[in-house]
Design brief:
The protein has about 700 residues and is of the alpha+beta class. The chain contains 20 helices and 20 strands. The strands form five sheets. It has a seven-stranded mixed β-sheet with strand order 3-2-1-4-7-6-5. The longest helix is centred in the C-terminal third of the chain and has 26 residues. The chain is globular and about 100 Å long.
């Protein structure tokens, strides 16, 4: 017979176990009986509405201390609102989840299986449910929802945790038995049902993405962290690492960037079918905090939700947001298309009109960078185009007494200003041709050597021709939009030289439309819609980040995709071993096009200056500073409504800054003391930078 000490020890062990929650359906019933919304419950438990939804449909479980608080709340509700036909109890009885009786998934041993074969019911069957100590494992498996494309039943990606669970979009959870990277790749291609259909009929399907948590990485034989002197996102596993050897031995390949935070593992395509899997290692800083705020710290199911929304609205992530932005351009404008060869009757690959083609193109010397082979080999000394975003502060001696007495400095930030500039932007599609003394034509994209020093601009505004806002003093190279604006101001322009392109097209139009829709839809999910009044819009923007942190992270990633994608068009060489004049990997891409980047920035800067002029005409107000897409004005109040121009009808005046969620319209970025702003200007600082918090300008990516 057991002793008293043994019995008490057993009882204490039971008391120390984590509390058991009622079935998901009962959790929802209790909350609804209490008249509490999911959003209100999420606020009380300091979590997201989506997490509460996951708890109530069995997709995930809360962790302590939130688990204990949730249990206490459910116990209280259970005492007040017992289930129909049941006697009231003081606490909720624990209910064990029913075990799944599905057969274990059979493995397919075909060596060269395509990326997305037809997925059979047997291949997708779940193994029996195995209890685990992880509170993140759902109590029951959620059946996969049918997808538009039957090849990709489970969406574009999954987040693999250390408990063998792969969390997909829509709350689905797959069992992944892989214990090595090679097994994971084969499972992903043959059994997972992951992937996404092409964005253009001439393009390619998106490769499935597997995101690895730290626990999953360690389980697969990878180090939890990458350590070294370089930035972690630039580090790679050494070629003699056991995991790299396993990949090579299994006849899989790694891209030139090796096994880093974003590793692409592939085999040569079989016909039209690709065999490629993209891996992202969270603990190796795959998700940059600047582009994906707070996502790395989320639960796997929430990470899958955030990345899944981005994949659906933008593109399946293939690297940093800068890389994804560049990949999206190619996905929407594929370089080739299938055409029938009249001689043989066979279908062959041919150039897709409107695209950048398949071969890289050398820029004109003034469009290149100083280390580019075109410049070094030719000995070019004719100067370079300097189309960059604004970084300007109005000199303190140009402030009026009336401006200095205004109590506030208010920052207006243009929503994705560079995305708005990409709309209907005509760029060159062919190589540049050199001309001497050409007649200026605003419809021809290219670079022009012209003297704009004679153009008079109000000293209280930045010059539209230089990033720092100073007046040019000699001939310089400008992009077409900048020269056209000088002509718009009423001045004669006489180019000395030009590097112009004969074939043109609106290459970025699909990219703009795709990202604009993603941006506006995501803002709408956060409560910021187009039908709001200006007052309601400002209030919605004030709280939108707290509405749903996951969707707020998607919004940040979309904005980073825009800036990073444009920056990638002129990616500079990286690494300490680089020597000037040597080609670097980015130059091998058809999308290494600094002239297109210059065109976007030039148009955005000209658009900004045009609004500044119109504001001065309508209101008599002049900016204190401009940084990139943020402009700071002195104001009598804390709101832009105190100084923005409105007609007698209450509608915003056209031509100036207007509030709204659409790209190109403004939102309130920050409010500071006017005296504080003037003090900064006297010290040579930019008030816009301080209000924006040092936002990166068109980062050229990793």
């Amino acid at each position: 017979m057991a002793s008293e000490e043994e019995l008490f020890a057993s009882v204490d062990a039971l008391l120390n176990e984590e509390p058991h929650l009622p079935p998901p359906a009962e959790r929802a019933r209790l909350r609804e009986a209490a008249g509490i919304t999911q959003a209100r419950l999420a606020t009380a438990l300091k979590t997201t509405t989506q997490s509460v939804k996951n708890w109530e449909n069995g997709r995930s479980e809360p962790k302590s201390p939130r688990l204990d608080a949730y249990q206490r709340l459910l116990n209280g509700w259970a005492a007040k609102y017992p289930a129909p036909g049941a006697a009231p109890t003081a606490s909720v009885a624990a209910t064990a989840p029913a075990a799944s009786t599905g057969p274990a998934a059979s493995r397919v041993e075909t060596a060269d299986a395509p990326q997305a074969p037809a997925v059979t019911a047997e291949a997708l069957a779940r193994p029996p449910f195995r209890p685990t100590a992880s509170p993140r494992r759902p109590a029951t498996k959620t059946a996969a929802q049918p997808a538009a494309d039957p090849r990709f039943l489970h969406g574009p990606l999954a987040v693999l945790d250390g408990d063998d669970c792969a969390y997909g979009v829509g709350g689905i959870v797959l069992d992944c038995p892989a214990t090595t990277v090679v097994e994971l790749v084969e499972w992903t291609l043959r059994k997972s049902g992951l992937g996404a259909p092409r964005l253009h009929r001439n393009g390619k399907d998106s490769d499935p993405l597997i995101v690895l948590t730290a626990a999953a990485a360690v389980k697969l034989g990878l180090p939890e962290r990458l350590e070294g002197y370089e930035q972690r996102r630039s580090l790679r596993l050494p070629e003699d690492h056991p995991v790299v050897k396993q990949v090579v031995k299994a006849k899989w390949r790694l891209t030139q960037r090796g096994f880093g935070p974003w590793a692409r593992i592939y085999r040569k395509a079989q016909g039209r079918e690709r065999q490629c899997v993209q891996l992202a290692v969270l603990s190796w800083d795959a998700l940059d905090e600047r582009s994906w705020p707070g996502v790395s710290q989320m639960e796997p199911a929430d990470i899958a939700r955030v990345l899944g929304v981005y994949a659906t609205r933008v593109i399946t992530p293939r690297g940093s947001t800068a890389v994804s932005g560049l990949e999206l351009m190619t996905a929407l404008r594929p370089p080739t298309r299938a055409v029938r060869d009249e001689a043989t009757g066979n279908w062959v690959s041919a150039y897709n009109p409107g695209s950048l083609g398949t071969e890289p193109m050398d820029p004109a010397p003034p469009e290149a960078t100083a280390e580019h082979p075109v410049v070094v080999d030719s000995g070019w000394t004719g100067g370079f185009i300097n189309e960059e975003a604004y970084q300007w502060v109005r000199p303190v001696d140009l402030l009026t007494d009336e401006e200095c007495t205004l109590p506030f400095a208010v920052g207006l930030d243009l929503n994705t200003a560079f995305l708005a500039a990409a709309a209907r932007l005509v760029v060159g599609l062919s190589a540049p041709d050199h001309f001497v003394g050409p007649k200026f034509n605003p419809k021809i994209p290219g670079s022009w050597l012209v003297d704009l020093s004679h153009v008079e601009v109000d000293a209280r505004l930045p010059s539209p021709f230089t990033p720092d806002g100073t007046r040019p003093t000699e001939p310089a190279w400008y992009q077409t939009h900048t020269v056209a604006y000088a002509q718009e101001l009423g001045y004669n322009v006489a180019p000395l030289e030009g590097y112009l392109r004969r074939e043109t097209g609106a290459y970025l139009d699909p990219w703009h439309d795709h990202l604009k829709t993603a941006y506006v839809d995501t803002l709408a999910d956060l409560g910021v819609t187009r039908d709001l009044s200006d007052t309601d819009f400002l209030a919605a923007m004030e709280r939108h980040k707290d509405t749903d942190p996951g969707m707020a992270a998607v919004l940040a990633a979309i904005k980073a995709t825009v800036k990073g994608g444009i920056g990638k068009l002129r990616e500079r060489p990286q690494g300490k071993k680089y020597k000037e004049g040597e080609p670097w990997p980015a130059l091998q891409r058809p999308t290494w096009r600094p002239d297109i980047r210059a065109a976007v920035i030039s148009k955005a800067r000209v658009n900004m200056h045009r609004k500044l002029r119109n504001m001065a005409t309508m209101t008599g107000l002049y900016p204190l500073a401009v940084l990139s897409d943020c402009v700071v004005y002195p104001s009598p109040g804390e709101s832009p409504l105190d100084f923005l121009p409105y007609a007698a009808s209450g509608k915003p005046q056209p031509g100036g800054f207007r509030l709204g969620p659409t790209p190109g319209l403004a939102k309130l970025e920050g409010v500071q003391s006017m005296l504080w702003a003037v003090d900064l200007m006297e010290q040579g600082y930019n008030p816009a930078r301080h209000i924006k918090g040092g936002d990166a300008i068109l980062d050229e990516g990793e």
